Amino acid sequence: MSRFFYGIEDLFVNVLFAPYDLFRFMTSWWASNSINWIFMIIGFVAMVYWMGQLKIFDTNGEEDKSISSHSYL
Q1: Taking the mean position of all CA atoms in its chain, how far away is CA 61?
Q2: Backbone phi and psi for residue 71, each to the nearest 5 degrees, phi listed first
Q3: Could you list the residue range(s) of the whole structural domain that residue 57 is in?
Q4: Is 68 helix (H, G, I), strand (E, B) or coil?
Q5: What is the Cα–Cα distance from 62 to 53, expressed in whole angstroms?
Q6: Which of 6, 8, 12 is nearest to 21 (CA)?
Q7: Which pLDDT value is given to residue 62?
Q8: What is the pTM of this model?
Q9: What distance, in Å, lies between the first and last C-alpha atoms of the chain?
Q10: What does DSSP assign to residue 38?
Q11: Domain match, 8 and 23 both
Q12: What is the pLDDT of residue 27?
């Protein structure tokens, strides 16, 4: 069973997280955290899009605002 967990460790450390080793040796904070900033921007754009879609459904009157939307409630 320990070989299974060592296999998972090897997969993550040597394969999946290998590109992040490049950022470990950078001296610039902005360059090191560029991946985080990209993910934050993508998340913010997705949130703005989602709020826009909710606004469209709300203005069209298609939003179900009943208190119990499920039959089991």
Answers
A1: 30
A2: -70, -25
A3: 33-63
A4: coil
A5: 11
A6: 12
A7: 79
A8: 0.57
A9: 45
A10: H
A11: yes
A12: 76
Instruction: Report the number of distinct structural domains present in the chain.
Output: 2
Instruction: Spell 28-48 as b/e; 16+ CB within 10 A means b.
Output: eeeeeeeeeeeeeeeeeeeee
Kindly report the backbone phi and psi dihedral angles of residue 8, in degrees, each rounded to the nearest multiple of 5, phi listed first: -65, -45
Q: Report angle CA 42, 12, 44 to the nearest 5 degrees.
A: 10
Longest pairwise C-alpha distance within the chain = 58
- Please count the CA atoms within 13 angstroms of the CA of 19 that sit on its side-chain side: 2
Chain position carrying tokens 């703005």: 48
Q: What pLDDT, in 10s, does the model give residues 10-60? A: 999 999 988 888 777 777 888 778 888 999 999 999 999 999 999 998 888
Residue with tokens 């989602």: 50
